[in-house]
Specification:
Blueprint (H helix, E strand, L loop, with lengths): L13 H12 L3 H31 L5 H8 L1
Length: about 70
Amino acid sequence: MKGNSITVRLDDDLAPILDQVCRSSGRTRSEVIRSALKRHLAILRFQQLRRQAMPFAAAHGYLTDEDVFDSVS
């Protein structure tokens, strides 16, 4: 796999948890960290987009998630 390499320093209590997950899943540290980072970045991006969209949604009466679900259900 081509890409950028970075060095990540793990807290002493995090390294054994990561290693246990790797052993139980058969995945490498890199695979687990890449997956966790992708998920975390996707959540951050979603939250950012949601904050940007909320004023427009509120202007159309969508104030809660339930308002949206009711509209599309």
